[in-house]
Amino acid sequence: MRHWVLITGCSTGIGRALVPLCREAGWSVVATARNPDALAELPPGEDLRILPLDVTDAASIAAAAAACADLPLKALVNNAGYAQVGPLELLHPEELRAQFETNVIGLHMVTNAFLPLLRQQPGARILQVASMLGRLSIPLAGPYNASKHAVVALAESLQLEVGRQVAVVLVEPGAVRTAFRDTLARAWGDLPERARGTRYEAVIAHYLHGRKRQAERYGMTAEACARKLLQALNASRPPRRMTVGWDAFWVGKLKALLPAAWWEAVMRRFYGLG
Ligand SMILES: NC(=O)c1ccc[n+]([C@@H]2O[C@H](COP(=O)([O-])OP(=O)(O)OC[C@H]3O[C@@H](n4cnc5c(N)ncnc54)[C@H](OP(=O)(O)O)[C@@H]3O)[C@@H](O)[C@H]2O)c1
């Protein structure tokens, strides 16, 4: 019997790269996206079901869960997410709320909607895609840092609560070359205008340009990241935590080793915060 995996946020990036990898590895895939037309290019087959799923919309989640009720669902990959960035001083509360609605509450609602189905399959697992920024915080990305710290906390609690029946794997990637940074620029909204004339004006320009360039130079490909997720899907004993990428590994170590004042000095210098 083929096992099924449901993946959120398959329109681009890591989620999209994971779909063909899973199919090649013998999984059947429920590929989901807010706009399922974005998945029209995926080769059809009995091993693929395409469903609309907006993780902020309870009705959409319930409909997706109902549409999977007949499947032997063995894995869920909570991948959908975006980064709301910006200096906290300039941030509107609704921007912070929206960030949590998608990255945290959405992930939580999807998890709970599919847990009953997952419980029926021995060896079932949930992959919660957090970030290296779920363990350390960088400036100008406060909302995103906070949301991913919350994902880490939820995953660790969930592992303790249900881990004997359904394994919970925390995935913590470093920089990955995806549409993520374009989406990030869109999530700025009118922040550059809000920043005009403040100490953040130059900092933001430096940040937007620099972040994209760094990720393009050093980030791993979406496929390389997806391969790591596939390892966790296939593992007979899934890991509790999976750090993906040399930056996620080493930056975490560096933060743990450096005195706090040194770490802050490095961060301020790196982000042009003087
Ligand atoms: N790229 C990185 O450097 C990096 C590093 C660490 C962690 N991550 C995490 O990896 C995950 C995937 O990101 P990515 O790099 O692959 O970025 P991406 O290419 O921008 O993909 C994000 C996906 O999430 C979907 N999404 C956003 N809001 C959604 C919603 N309300 N409902 C359903 N889907 C939604 C997007 O769909 P639409 O097309 O509809 O917007 C898109 O398919 C995210 O959780 C991100 O935080 C990324």
Automatic annotation (TrEMBL):
Domain Ketoreductase: 3-179
Coiled-coil regions, chain positions: none
Any one GO molecular function term: oxidoreductase activity
Family matches, as Pfam families: adh_short
Keyword annotations from UniProtKB, A to Z: Oxidoreductase
Statement: the UniProt record of this protein carries the keyword Oxidoreductase: yes
Alphabetized SMART domains for the sequence: PKS_KR
InterPro entries, per the entry: KR_dom (IPR057326), NAD(P)-bd_dom_sf (IPR036291), Sc_DH/Rdtase_CS (IPR020904), SDR_fam (IPR002347)
PROSITE patterns, per database record: ADH_SHORT
PANTHER family in the cross-refs: NADPH-DEPENDENT 1-ACYLDIHYDROXYACETONE PHOSPHATE REDUCTASE (PTHR44169:SF6)
Family: Belongs to the short-chain dehydrogenases/reductases (SDR) family.
Name this polypeptide is given: SDR family NAD(P)-dependent oxidoreductase
Species of provenance: Candidatus Geothrix odensensis
Lineage per the UniProt record: Bacteria, Pseudomonadati, Acidobacteriota, Holophagae, Holophagales
